[in-house]
């Protein structure tokens, strides 16, 4: 018998499966702000305050390795800017940038700003995310 589309055998369901991965940038949203951020990263990259942005975006846009990694994750992904934090019911003044994971409206911080600021490369960030997701 063929199973209906979207059916998942309950015996194969992993109760630890994560549902949401939320990236919170230390940057403002909008096209004007994106242009200012782009210029800031070129003129004075060492003073740019969003390490998550710097690690995942170059001067010409999102790094393809980052895009491929995100597509490989079987999770919902959200990208939030610091001027959108009031939309998040769970956020409580964590230093930015940071990354949360959530399931059933329960959210926990998996990578804080100090850890993101310590990442020296996109590869390091990807490995850190993989490690933290495997532990949750």
Describe this structure in words.
The chain has 136 residues and is α+β, with helices and mostly antiparallel strands. The protein has one domain (18-134): 3-Layer(aba) Sandwich (Glutaredoxin). The chain contains 5 helices and 6 strands; from the N terminus they run E-H-H-E-E-H-E-E-E-H-H. The protein has helices at 31-43, 51-56, 64-72, 113-118, 122-134; strands at residues 20-24, 57-58, 61-62, 76-80, 98-103, 106-111. A 4-stranded mixed beta sheet has the order 4-1-5-6. It is globular.
3D shape: globular
User: What is the strand content?
Assistant: 15-25%
The CATH topology corresponds to Glutaredoxin
Rg from C-alpha positions? 17 Å
Structural class: alpha+beta
* CATH top level label: Alpha Beta
SS summary, helix count: 5
The chain-level mean pLDDT equals: 80
Number of domains: 1
